[in-house]
Specification:
The chain has five helices and no strands. By secondary structure, it is mainly alpha-helical.
Length: about 80
């Protein structure tokens, strides 16, 4: 089982995570890798197909406001 962290993007600091979330390609890749590292295979696969623009904007807003990425599906 993957270790649960209080911070997204592999436990990196808040400022670094926000900077990475601003860049669309890194936010997309790190979002997929984060979900897969949590053991959420289906959520990671869905991020591959639907993680482009809408999820990127939501991830960016949520990262700034709540310090966590979007988690719609927990399977």
């Amino acid at each position: 089982m993957a270790k649960k962290s209080s911070k997204d993007y592999f436990g990196l600091g808040y400022l670094i995570s926000v900077i990475l979330a601003i860049i669309p390609v890194t936010a997309w890749i790190l979002g997929i890798l984060t979900r897969l590292s949590e053991g959420k295979i289906v959520a990671g696969i869905l991020r591959i197909f639907f993680g482009c623009w809408i999820v990127w904007v939501l991830d960016l807003i949520l990262m700034i406001l709540s310090k966590k990425i979007l988690r719609v599906l927990n399977i």
